[in-house]
Specification:
Length: about 240
């Protein structure tokens, strides 16, 4: 009797791209491949099936060990593998190069409760492909990285997620997510314009965090830092 292995069901596009990478490098056993990436085999299985979302460290492991192009990995656009050498991939990029480092503001976004913030710009942990920003109609000089703290935007943007925020997109549009400054605290909310012209700001976790509604004139006075254009979620 011949036993056929059950084919795994892959739930997400990112999971399919992660599985494709393993195929392209010779389809090694998952345990061997996980060891090469510095991952636990069960974690790799969850990422490839789409059961969990890889965090930044995992994405960087693919880039550093396999020269995987992060723009392709996140969007499916462009080339799977970076044609540059390993040293070139890991070398910090200048403003004119394909990969750039965005400033990381040492401020936790209070997506639920209030947290104090401080201003300490530094380089972020992730080099971003210019095309990734271009696809979101964002200019590199207007973007920064911020980290989520709190659970009001979970599960879409759970605590610890790293966001790319475009500070040049401060006009509030329907359905978009924005970072706003309330007092000396950064908060993140999704925006919805109501039929009567009022603005509703709400969290994904609406059972715990009720929505707020602003009159049109009050909405115009909100201190909008920028629009969230990408979210790199923790697992």
């Amino acid at each position: 009797m011949i036993l056929l292995a059950r084919q795994e069901r892959i739930k997400t596009d990112l999971g399919r791209r992660l599985r494709t990478i393993r195929w392209e490098v010779g389809d090694p056993q998952r345990e061997e491949f996980a060891s090469r990436l510095g991952l636990h085999v069960n974690s790799l299985a969850n990422y490839e099936r789409g059961d969990r979302i890889p965090n930044l460290d995992v994405l960087l492991a693919y880039r550093e060990n396999l020269n995987v192009d992060l723009h392709w990995l996140l969007t499916g656009k462009g080339r799977m593998f970076d044609s540059r050498t390993q040293n070139e991939v890991l070398t910090p990029r200048s403003a004119g190069d394909e990969l750039i480092q965005l400033p990381y503001l040492d401020q936790d976004i209070a997506s639920g409760e209030a947290y104090a913030s401080s201003e300490s710009p530094q380089f972020g942990p992730l080099a971003v492909d210019r095309d990734l920003l271009k696809d979101a109609e964002a200019a590199p000089e207007g973007c920064c990285l911020l980290k989520v703290k709190g659970d009001s935007m979970a599960p879409t943007m759970p605590e610890g997620s790293l966001l790319i925020v475009d500070r040049q997109q401060a006009n509030i549009e329907q359905g978009c997510v924005y970072v706003m400054l309330v007092g000396n605290v950064l908060v993140i909310k999704r925006a919805r314009w109501l039929a009567d012209g009022k603005l509703q700001l709400f969290s994904e976790n609406q059972e715990r965090y009720p929505a707020e509604v602003f009159e049109a004139d009050a909405a115009a006075d909100l201190n909008v830092i920028g629009r969230v254009i990408y979210c790199f979620r923790v697992p």
